[in-house]
Amino acid sequence: MFPLGHAGITLALAVGLAYVLKKEWEPKMFLLAVVVGAWLPDIIDKPVGVLLGYAGGGRLVAHSLLFAVTFTLLALSINRFGKSKSGRWNALVSHVPFVAFGSWMHLVLDEIWWNPGVLLWPGYGWGFPIGEEFDLISVLLTPVVLIGEVVGGVILVGFVVWNFRLK
Ligand SMILES: [Zn+2]
Q: Residues 37-62: what's their mean pLDDT?
């Protein structure tokens, strides 16, 4: 999946999760946390992958279960023990778990289970599958990708309008 799909679909699910868990959130920090999380594996892996010559930018350590679990434990620890006297800081800290949620959703939307060598790294060895060259435009025009981008974009715009314009 591509950036808008990742960000928008993850945002909708995060709103649902926060609602179910009755977790309070502040729109700006929530948006930032969820979107950073939704993009995190690509933000980390793509530049490194390009430098190392993996086709398509590669899916490396940040797309592994090991990374997701480690990052989640870190996020929950920051959330649990990182509180201070500053209300603004505490608000920031309370949104950190949404970054972890976003990065888990990234793995789901990438359907990373089709890449067990990445998902279960380093279970199948220290290297990563080299990946396949792909044509960006033709992948973008695949219906499922295109629909994902449009739906994600609409959700993002809807979220921003609802939270920053109507109130
Ligand atoms: Zn990815």
A: 89
Specify if 98 maps to a domain. yes
Q: How far is the CA of 115 from the centre of ligand 1 (A)?
A: 11
The model's pTM: 0.91
Full domain range(s) for residue 118: 3-159
Is it the case that residue 113 has pLDDT exceeding 80? yes
Rounded distance between C-alpha atoms, residue 140 and residue 89, angstroms = 39
Smallest Cα–Cα separation from 113: which of 150, 64, 52? 64
Number of domains within the chain: 1
Answer yes or no: is 167 within a domain. Answer: no
CA of 144 to the centre of ligand 1 (A): 16
**What three-state secondary structure class fits 58?**
coil
Confidence grade of residue 85 (pLDDT, cut at 50, 70, 90): confident
Kindly give the distance from the C-alpha atom of residue 112 to the centroid of ligand 1, in angstroms, as a whole number. 8
